[in-house]
Design goal:
Layout: H1 2-69, H2 72-86, H3 89-115
Protein name: RebB family R body protein
Coiled coil: 86-113
InterPro entries: Killing_trait_RebB
Length: 123
Amino acid sequence: MTDTTSSAADTAHADINAKVLGEAPAMALGSLYQSIGNALALAAANAVYAQQQANVSYQAATTLGVSTLLGVESASAAHQTLILTAQPAETAREQIEQQIRLLQQQLESLKARSENPSSVKGA
């Protein structure tokens, strides 16, 4: 009876070992597929997050641009244009020439400051 029991245990043990060895490649592939699936899910989530953050940045840049366009300086320039168009052509031309001269003077002043930094206050 001991030989029969021992032989049955040996057979069961051999069968279990064969089963474990036979299932190992399938288990390894299953684990690999799960890891790949998790990595793809993380990549997709990161792409969505990056797109959302980019949209926030784009919206902020657009808001800043519109604010700048509608700001005081732009409104002032538009107001000046309306004033110039409402005046006779000769008067408007004189005012435009005067503004050009003022801009040229400011440009020359800026150039002089950049060429001679010691003339700038606080330097």
